[in-house]
Each structure stands twice: as structure tokens, then as C-alpha cells.
Design brief:
This protein is α+β, with helices and mostly antiparallel strands and 114 residues long. Helix content is 29%, strand content 29%. It is globular, with a radius of gyration of 16 Å.
Length: 114
């Protein structure tokens, strides 16, 4: 599971980065957390992204109920740009490795059924 939250941050990112670091530490302490990164767009320095990778969607959802995540990550995540943030990983490649492809768990809704 890949989770990408994007943020619009003003010209003084100091407070934001402190809060993002605390959020990463809280998320990183949860079971199923694989990795996390905070980045800024070089072409638009007000656009930031917090990307985390999880063992499964269940691990990510359980992490959201963790006390420290509620204290440090949830308030930050609530300020992210409103757009889908969770993605199934359907292909991955490690340095020097082979491409791994997965089918995913998403099942399309049959035409006419909702």
C-alpha cells in the first residue's frame, strides 16, 4: 500500500516540517510500516509530499487508530490537498531486481450494478 499526501505550504516551512517529522515518527512506530519520505517539489517549493509505504491496507488503517498517530499525524494529514491518497502497489522494482507485478485487490463494479 502506497500513501501519498500532498500539501500546499507557505514560504516559511519550518513549522510544517517539524509537524511532518513528528507524523513520520508516529507512523513509523506502527506495525506494518515499511518506509516514509517527506519531499518538496523543486519546481514549486510550496508543494510538499509525505509518502509512506505499508505492508497492507489493513496495516495502514490500523495505524490511523494509533494514539500517537491521532496526536501527530492526523492533524497534519487533515491539511493535505483533498484528493485520493492511498494506492495499491501494482508494480515494483528494486535496484538490480526484476519487475514484480501484482493484480491488486480492486474489483471493478459490473456495468449497471452499483
Amino acid at each position: 500500500m502506497l500513501v501519498v499526501n500532498r500539501f500546499r505550504v507557505g514560504t516559511d516551512p519550518g513549522e510544517f516540517t517539524e509537524r511532518a517529522h513528528a507524523a513520520l515518527r508516529a507512523l513509523g512506530a506502527c506495525a506494518g510500516f515499511l518506509s516514509g519520505r517527506l519531499g518538496r517539489a523543486p519546481d514549486d517549493p510550496e508543494l510538499w509530499a509525505l509518502a509512506t509505504e505499508w505492508k497492507s491496507v489493513g496495516a495502514y488503517r490500523r495505524a490511523l487508530s494509533n494514539f500517537d498517530v491521532k496526536m501527530y499525524a492526523t492533524p497534519l494529514l487533515a491539511q493535505s490537498i483533498e484528493e485520493p491518497s492511498a494506492y495499491e502497489v501494482l508494480a515494483s522494482l528494486a535496484p538490480g531486481g526484476e519487475l514484480t507485478v501484482a493484480e491488486g485487490d480492486w474489483v471493478p463494479v459490473e456495468e449497471g450494478r452499483r
